[in-house]
Amino acid sequence: MKKLMMILAGAAMLFTSCGEKGDGPKITEAAKWYITGDATYFDGKEDAAQLGSLNLDSEKSNGLTETDVVLGNFAFLKAGSFNVELKDGSVVYGGTKTSELYVDGDSSLADIGDIYTVTDKGAAITITDPGMYFVALNTDLKEVSVVKVNWGLIGGAINGWSDELPLGEATYNNGVVTWEKTNVTIKKDSYKFRFGQGWGVTLKLNTDETNNTINTYSDITGVQKGDANVLTEAFANLQSGGDNIANATAGIYTVTLKYIISDNLYQAKIVKTGDYVPSYPENLYFTGNSYNNWTWDEGSYGTMIKTKDEGKFWAFVYLQAGVADEGLKFSPALNWDAAFGVSSATIVEGGAYDKGGENAKVAASGVYQVVVDLVAEKVYIEKPVVYLLGDVVGGVWGADAFIDANKFTVDDEAGTITSPAFANAGNLRMCMRNAFLDDENWWKAEFNVIDGQIAYRAKGEDQAAVAVTVGQKAILNIKTGAGSIE
Questions:
Q1: Whether residue 25 has pLDDT greater than 50
Q2: Secondary structure tally for the chain: helices H, strands E
Q3: Contact 238/251 with Cβ under 8 angstroms?
Q4: Which one, of 431, 436, 467, lies nearest residue 447 by Cα?
Q5: Residue 103 has pLDDT above 90, yes or no
Q6: How confident is the model at residue 50 (pLDDT cuts 50, 70, 90)?
Q7: I need a surface site. Which of 145, 169, 259, 442 has the fewest CB within 10 A?
Q8: Dihedral angle over CA of 476, 378, 242, 327, nearest 10
Q9: Which residues of 83-110 are buried (b: 16+ CB within 10 A; e: fewer)?
């Protein structure tokens, strides 16, 4: 059996010759459709010019993973025109543009391509903008869809998951189409190649009122799983529907993507050309099911406290466990573009995680301290470790103050953290402890109770003095942000 693998923006398009057992729909010799015409680089009805059955995103295609009604392929086209033709030449489709294709099939979003209604011996479809195209034929509806393919990079390792970083114009040489972009910053995170500004090309399947569309993939990635799915300085094959590409070493890279026409195959490589000098956000926010169900609306998110150390943030949070969509994620802006979570979908004992894409969860509902260290790319989710220091504990500071007698207690049901009774009168000082702070830098996670609220020192200098008396306690309500001295 001869099997042609055509990788559609991350989607493997399979079709097989008749008479032999194959993975996809049987396409007889008489039913083979080809892209022909002076806009192509083909001499005739070559295998690389054949339209094949598409690998579909079943979640967006009403459960379908493939269909023999809609066939497609990539084609690198030059200025000119083309038809879609049966192998035996008995039907040569051409036609006129009748409508547009939109991002995710939503007409309120950007136009990404054109739909032509075709007839036998109809006018050839004209190409005025040379480059890579995706061409699909609906054999029932007699429609040809044409999408210009402008590949880009997308992901947390690039500029977030909303917009593609364009690779630029392609070049053609001896049957190979190549995109190359230099000086690309790729951080320690994950990414994919994508075109079309959305996660798939939505195509009409039939004229039914419902369940009438299918969705091909519009992204490509490596063929391995998990952290093994990486690109190196050697070209590697790409596929669709796979795991994100992992990047372990932040740096400046040259990214090369190529399409081998004769094999209908995408390959890519990256070459590190310089070191990455990181910059860190001024703000970091978090949201989740405990914060109005995963929105960034006003009042639906929390704000991390920025320390004097670049890239280091912390906060007290109240988290729910064992509920739908539990956990939280973080973002330097009030959107999902560069949002991140933790590396493990399961709860890690001790609460220390690598930065990743999973929701940060806890084993039991209650009060936690969350520390995000963007320099080390670590996230800590721990029960609060809070101590009194200074006047109220006899004038001791740092490691000498970090003893059980000075440690706060946590009431998870009430959502509060309460100090021991003050042993001495004086000015109140207290701080959170975590592995990212050494004993002498406790003040970088200091806070106090001012005007009935928990007030955080953050990047600032010493806070205003708060005088207390013997026997009083500091009570911090993490659910409301209120603080009191009683």
A1: no
A2: 0, 42
A3: no
A4: 431
A5: no
A6: very high
A7: 169
A8: -10
A9: bbbbbeeebbbbbeeeeebbbbbeeeee
